Amino acid sequence: xxxxxxxxxxxxxxxxxxxxxxxxxxxxxxxxxxxxxxxxxxxxxxxxxxxxxxxxxxxxxxxxxxxxxxxxxxxxxxxxxxxxxxxxxxxxxxxxxxxxxxxxxxxxxxxxxxxxxxxxxxxxxxxxxxxxxxxxxxxxxxxxxxxxxxxxxxxxxxxxxxxxxxxxxxxxxxxxxxxxxxxxxxxxxxxxxxxxxxxxxxxxxxxxxxxxxxxxxxxxxxxxxxxxxxxxxxxxxxxxxxxxxxxxxxxxxxxxxxxxxxxxxxxxxxxxxxxxxxxxxxxxxxxxxxxxxxxxxxxxxxxxxxxxxxxxxxxxxxxxxxxxxxxxxxxxxxxxxxxxxxxxxxxxxxxxxxxxxxxxxxxxxxxxxxxxxxxxxxxxxxxxxxxxxxxxxxxxxxxxxxxxxxxxxxxxxxxxxxxxxxxxxxxxxxxxxxxxxxxxxxxxxxxxxxxxxxxxxxxxxxxxxxxxxxxxxxxxxxxxxxxxxxxxxxxxxxxxxxxxxxxxxxxxxx
Length: 510
Prior knowledge:
Layout: H1 2-26, H2 35-74, H3 76-97, H4 107-126, H5 131-139, H6 143-176, H7 188-218, H8 224-229, H9 231-240, H10 246-277, H11 282-314, H12 320-334, H13 344-352, H14 356-370, H15 376-425, E1 431-433, E2 449-451, E3 461-463, H16 475-484, E4 497-498, H17 503-509
Antiparallel strand pairs: 1-2, 2-3, 3-4
Helix pairs in contact: 2-10, 2-11, 2-12, 2-13, 2-14, 2-15, 3-4, 4-6, 4-7, 4-14, 5-7, 6-7, 7-10, 7-14, 9-11, 10-11, 10-14, 12-15
């Protein structure tokens, strides 16, 4: 009997263990039980996949504005300076003939003359600097020293970019300040010296950056290039795990635009310098362009990943990039108004920290050293051809910027007018009480009011039954009327939200 009992216990234990194992094979679950959560997760994945396209649209429009500001230095600025000098000479002659008829230059003409004077002065001071000596001096250093040196140059470039436009703006305002205002400044000449010193230092820094990149591309083992490219991953690690809001993300995005365009100009300088040393051969050009493509593609991919994870971790709406583009469009349109307070290139510099004058000085320095012709006629023809090409590119780019800006602003105005008409069409007759669905009650078990769904597929507005919907009022006006009224202001009585949940339409059908 004891043996039978022991065998029975063993079989029972075996059966229980086997049932426990079978549970793991037959255990079931249904994702439909939490449909909303999994739908939200799927939308987050789709949003994550949309972010690179939205980021590139924003960055492309920002790069177009940087290119417009950069091309302005070589195209319209010389022409505007020529017209300003003509106006200055004519005003001087008219003053000489008639002392009572004094014509002064406008503020824009004075700023243009100052820009060109600063550029020419810094270029003349930069001519004695030997770039080949800087190249061999940098090349003789070890890889670690070059890596540290390049990081120091990058930090210095960011600091100069953040403070340089203030120096230039101070010079412009000091030179154009009205006589009626209270003048408290050092004078135009000290501000001019400070501006020249800043542009000169920034130009030398950019030239050193380009030379360091040139060393990285032309080194034997190219060990410096991967180390310099690893800076992108360090930037990725430093930004992704920080707390971001819309304003901080906008500043980061503007910095990415400036960095990408600045890197493009540096790579252009490297290509010109290197191709000149290889006697302009096509083989060296293709190899160099392949390395430049690697650097740019890595920069673009890191920007995609950085913005995607920032949006994902901080739960920011991906439509924020459309708002950023709209702010750029607003800047572009305002700079061409009759009552504009600043030039478009200066607006770009203040918004993104991109200052074109130091880069303009470096480009002229590199081109004069690398491209030269013995015959004067050939040089003149070449310069005219380059000017015509840059002028055409500037016009096409500017037409695209203003065209897209006008289109975006008109679309925004149309959307605002349409939404205003929809809210004005809602009246008290459209309000119905829904008491058939318990989940749509508030905390005090009071039924919520549903507004009948308006035309054009717009979302209805949910309000509490203690709040009266007035005709021809916006959401902001409704909130102000509620706060001014004698109605109770508890959280349950002021449940005023926009119905962004698609389940509301199903509630109405129920």
